[in-house]
Amino acid sequence: MKKVGGRFVLLVLVVVFSVVAFLPSYPALFQTLPPWLKRAFPNKGIALGLDLQGGIHLVLEVEEDRAVEIAVDRSVNTIQDLLTDKKIAVESVKRTGFAQVTLVFPKGDLKAQIQKILEGIPGFSENAGAGSDSTLVYELPEGEIKRIKDSAINQALETIRNRIDQFGVAEPLIQRQGLKQIVVQLPGIKEPKRAKDLIKETALLEFKMLDDTNRLATELPQRVLKGQEESILKQHQDKIPEGDQILFEKVVEKDSGREYRIPYLVKKRVMLAGDVLSDARVSIGQFNDPYVAVSFDARGAREFERITEENVKKRMAIVLDNTIYSAPVIQERISGGRAQITGSFSTQEANDLAIVLRAGALPAPLKVIQDLTVGPSLGRDSIEKGIHSTLLAGVMVVLFMAFYYRLSGVIADFALTLNLICLIGALAALNATLTLPGIAGIILTMGMGVDSNVLIFERIREELRQGKPVRLAVDGGYDKALLTIIDSHVTTLITGLALFLFGTGPIKGFAVTLCLGIAINLFTALVGTKVIFDVMNRRRQAEQLSI
Length: 547
Fold this sequence. Notes:
A hairpin with a 5-residue loop joins strand 14 and strand 15. The chain has a seven-stranded mixed sheet. Strands 7-8-2-19 form a four-stranded antiparallel sheet. It folds into three domains: 2-52 and 375-539, Multidrug efflux transporter AcrB transmembrane domain (Multidrug efflux transporter AcrB transmembrane fold, Up-down Bundle); 55-150 and 168-184, Alpha-Beta Plaits, CATH 3.30.70; 201-360, 2-Layer Sandwich (Gyrase A, domain 2). It is 52% helix and 19% strand. Helix 7 runs antiparallel to helix 8. By secondary structure, it is of the alpha+beta class.
């Protein structure tokens, strides 16, 4: 009896654990529990997928060519700094075309010196046929362009994932699709517009100097209404000196809420980029205005200190995605590797800005290929249909087993109920996401659970036909069906693992449910029902078995 008692206790513990794990998935009942009891339960339960609770579905495409251009522009800045450090004067260093860098310098013996210095620039090779005595042309080979494009997609994938994790969405789906597309599914999102803005924002942070010495800087209006940026650019297009650009700062009047734009003449050269940031967080200023405090890494701190020391009493623009957030005057050398980004934004906007800065900038802009918002009504309809189909399948199986195998069929129905309880509990304990394919996996598991009991019962019938006592017939039936049941479950488990490893999205949800169901089915079929038969035979030496 000791052996049966141990298995019976194990069965009870598994059921209790499953119920405890599932309870947080049923908020109506969970919220009625006292606080001290809630703390004893898990914090989460089963999360519903996009097809059940609604949310947003985005298909994004990385602008690969722009990623290459950005990489070349950064190389231009690196070359400029390198030549400045070597005290070599050149007329210009700029990107020409898609993936070329052209250097123009005075005639003389500079060409050999520059070639020697630029030998260490990674990825570029000299195009000797396109140069001359006073020019050098470097370009990226096809292999390097392909590497930059592929790296841009992988980096964008990781950056989006980091932003979503900090935004706090339960069970998001973020994966690569095809060559240059990214699929993002956010179930149960409450602020879809904010989430989309957070995902698509490039967050390319740059520190640039204002060109206040040029006459055009004084001709620009002090501020213009929102929407007049294009007219200002067209009006002064011919006056913009080479190496400069006009960027705008967003200003919002607190009283009226009206938005304005302040135009600035800014030098194109990036003094410091956002890739040297180590942290960004929201703080509150002395007038209760939120701002973003940023910290630089060791290299960024040294560069920021050098830049501020060389440009005291000059204005530096803090630019994010070609929008100026602030343009303060550098009063003194700033050491310690810290700066502030102020602007006319709310606490939520400041928090979103800090999120994208911490997660890092996207390597290139994103285009929205598909934008779908799934309403919760569709989810409720899907859940109702899934529940109805599960109940219908369950009732038909229960009635058939009870009719065909009588009392033994009722025991099999008990195992089926136990299977469902354990499966739902396991899904809740793993914080799994339940989708429509997952519901299909549950229904399939029900069929497999009955199939195992059918094999066992048929073996028991064979033993009874040979005249064996009930107890020996039951033991023999389980022993002879054991290998067959394990073989069938293992082959299905291999298929489920393959679906999980190589499948995506809903297929993975189906695979998780299937694999859990197989493992639980082995337990309920070989342990659950066997315990009941053993208890029956131990308490009363049965001479007949209703099977």
